[in-house]
Amino acid sequence: MSHTTMKNKLLTLSLVVAVAWLGALGSSGADNITVKDAAGRSIAITDPSRIVSVGGAVTEILYALGLESRIIAVDSTSLYPPRALAEKPSVGYMRQLSPEGVLGLGPSLVLAAEGSGPKDTIAVLEAASVPFVQIPDRFTGDGIVEKIRLIAQATGSAQRGECLIKLVEADLRALAALRARIERPRRALFILSFMNGRPMVAGRATAADGIITLAGAANAITAYDGYKLINDEAVIAARPDAILAMERASFRLDAKTVFDHPAFATTPAAAQKELISMEGLYLLGFGPRAARAARDLALALYPSLEPAVHGEIMPSERSPQDCRR
Amino acid sequence: MTQASASDAPRRSAWRKSMRVLVPPVLLVVLLLAAAVAAAIGAAGIPIGRIVAAFGLAPGNSALVDRDWLVLWSIRLPRIALAIIIGGLLAACGAVMQGLFRNPLADPALVGVSSGAGLAAASMIVVGDRYLASTGVTLPIETLPLAAFVGALLSTIILYRIATREGRTSVAMFLLGGLAIAALANAGLGLLVFLADDRQLRDINFWMLGSLSGATWAKVGAIAPFLVALACVQPFIARGLDLLVLGEMEAFHAGVSVERLKRTCVVLVAAAAGAAVSVSGVIGFVGLVVPHLLRLLIGPGHRLLLPTAALLGAALLVIADTFARTLAAPAELPIGIVTAVIGAPFFLYLLLRQRALLGP
User: Fold this and answer.
1) Which CATH class is domain A33-156?
2) pLDDT band at B202; cut points 50, 70, 90
3) How far B211 CA lies from chain A's nearest CA (Å)?
């Protein structure tokens, strides 16, 4: 009796050792990767050579890692680098993906930013045999690092990933040093849309809120989450020191339109007609350039910081090509 | 109704008669009260004493008075004025439409204004952003309401052409053609939504969503002439609409120029409802239910129905907008939700009451 138990135990032990050894053997090769994605699923990736990249920041990170030759298609929000959409076929808008449009290209890996959709398509893609990895989209410095790390892991390029992370972290430290010089945080209000004179404004849990915080300012609106149509009188009560908007080609929001609006005309921002317009993906993408965008925003919000950073550029600007090999 | 006992008929007519005397002044008082309350409530939270001071009726801290006056004069009052005008326009247009089509389900949207305005605005947002941008043409934000107004008029004109043959406009054709045009416009809108990116999508959504936010005196000035026009024309169309209930031939023989009446009404409603939609987006319920509500109270005569509908529509929209801008402050609720929540239960109560009065 005890003899058989002993034998069984030995057998189990040797099996465990064998499995562990085989596992170690497998993971030492570049072609057996398991990652945990934003949806909490564990995904095994065997061949990260034909990638469909969905989401502006995802594409930007893949290019920054020098992996663009592996991308077979991007989505229509992949606006940086500008050549991405020119040289890669597009699977359309990230929230209106079609399963056939994505899988029909024969990818071996799909990397999609959290928030891609519609839900039905995501369900189909998750169930498909091609590994589908959702990249988390958190609007903090750590969120950028997390994004880069997951993408680097999923593509089997952890080394390049750590290199880029080091660069981004150096940027974030430089930004933190800049923030430390700010004496009194100013209040910024981000306008997403101004159609018909109705301001749609960013609340908490938005990319706009994240970048405002990174730039050492305070979001003037903290009473709700997401982007919502805001009451005119609430704009006055929020007392923003500066108004933030995205640059756009048509229906451009200029200072006159904003500060002719009776509610905005009474805000502290109206005194100096402070309207800061920045390019959308740069400002809100939370990709590798987010720290730079935050610095640009901080300098626009606090012109007095200009001498402090005079001539000094961020680490990632000094060596932008470093992590591509 | 035919089975109602003979004693019910005089009771009913006596009730209506007293209602006809009572309703207009009561509505006027309700509207004024609603406007006064609306002026006193808002996210900026100005106590009543300071409001009195801001209007110069009492002494007050001059810095506060200036700021309060600004909130009152450039934000709250134009918004209340806009609510009054748009509520009045929508309800009166609804009454005209229901009379013209002799159909209780007719509302201003039937002449295609909402779908036409929506399609035009969405085209401007998507096409303007996508294709004009690359040619270096930039569109100012003011082009949107203009485009919507033109779109509303265009779709009504197309509909009118479809429904008119040899100088006679077929009401049935108008109703069915309206459905077809709305379906087509919605298909176009769907295509634009498909083409749109994130920001354009939000722009389109928020453009379509009915709201009185963004009210300015300029908008009030742009839309007020339509209410004036409606008020000037309504005495002349009221009798025609009353006779039209009997049928087109009957009205014609009673001396109504039926085709001219139809044309006047369609042009009037298209312009007024189109202007309302292009300023405030689509606000449902008011145009459909307010006229019914009043018909239950004061009977179907248009001479009284049209002005009282305008009064009630204005009051309803002022009240609804006060809730829309304060309930979820600092965010705004879509006003259509509020109009329905306030109006629908009251309408149901009146329906049930009428049934009790008229018998089963």
Assistant:
1) alpha beta
2) confident
3) 9
Tell me: domain A183-318, CATH 3.40.50.1980, correct? Answer: yes
Q: Among partner residues B67, B75, B138, which is closest to A252 by beta-carbon distance?
A: B138
Identify the CATH homologous superfamily for domain B31-358.
ABC transporter involved in vitamin B12 uptake, BtuC (1.10.3470.10)
- CA dihedral sign of residues B303, B308, B311, B313: negative
Q: Specify whether the CB–CB gap between A275 and A245 falls below 8 A.
A: yes
With beta carbons under 8 A apart, name residues in chain A contacting B141: 194-197, 251, 253, 257
Distance between CA atoms of residues B202 and B11, nearest Å:
54
**Are the Cβ atoms of A224 and B331 closer than 8 angstroms?**
yes
Could you tell me which of B181, B198, B182 has the C-alpha nearest to residue B125? B198
Q: Indicate whether this complex's ipTM tops 0.85.
A: no
User: Do A229 and B206 count as a contact with CB atoms less than 8 A apart?
Assistant: yes
A213 Cβ contact partners less than 8 Å away, ≥ 6 residues apart: A140, A219
Domains of chain A, by residue range, sit at: 33-156, 183-318
Residues 6+ apart with CB under 8 A from A176: none
- Tell me which residue of B274, B311, B239 sits closest to B157, measured CA to CA: B274
Contact B71 A236 (CB under 8 A): yes
CB B245 within 8 A of CB B98: no
Is the Cβ pair A237, B139 closer than 8 Å? no
Convert B21-30 to b/e letters by CB count within 10 Å (16 or more is b).
Answer: eebbeebeeb
For residue B42, list chain A residues with Cβ-Cβ distance below 8 A. Answer: 231, 233
Q: Say how many Å lie between the first and final Cα of chain A, rounded.
A: 60
The residue to which tokens 């076929």 are assigned: A89
> A195–B325: do the CB atoms touch at under 8 Å?
no
Question: Which chain A positions have a beta carbon within 8 Å of B282's beta carbon?
Answer: none
Q: pLDDT tens across B282-322, in order?
A: 888 888 889 988 988 898 899 999 999 999 999 999 999 99
Contacts of A195 (CB under 8 A, 6+ apart): A251, B125, B141, B144, B203, B206, B207
Integer Cα distance of A201 and A220 in angstroms: 10
Equal fold, A33-156 vs A183-318? yes
Q: Where are the alpha helices (DSSP H) in B102-169?
A: 113-127, 143-163
Chain mean pLDDT for chain B: 85
| pTM of the model as a whole | 0.82
Inter-chain touch A231–B129, beta carbons under 8 Å: no
Residue from the list A200, A263, A266 with its beta carbon closest to the beta carbon of B202: A200
Q: Do B44 and A228 touch (CB under 8 A)?
A: no
| C-alpha to C-alpha distance for B291 and B308, rounded to whole angstroms | 9
Residues of B within 8 A of A76 (CB-CB) are: 197
What's the pLDDT at B217?
92
Q: Report cis status (omega within 30 of 0) of the bond before B360.
A: no
User: Is residue A31 helix, strand or coil?
Assistant: coil
* Ranges of chain A whose pLDDT falls below 50: 1, 22-30
A138-151: per-residue pLDDT in tens? 999 999 999 999 99
> Which residue does chain A place closest to B76, by CA atoms?
A233
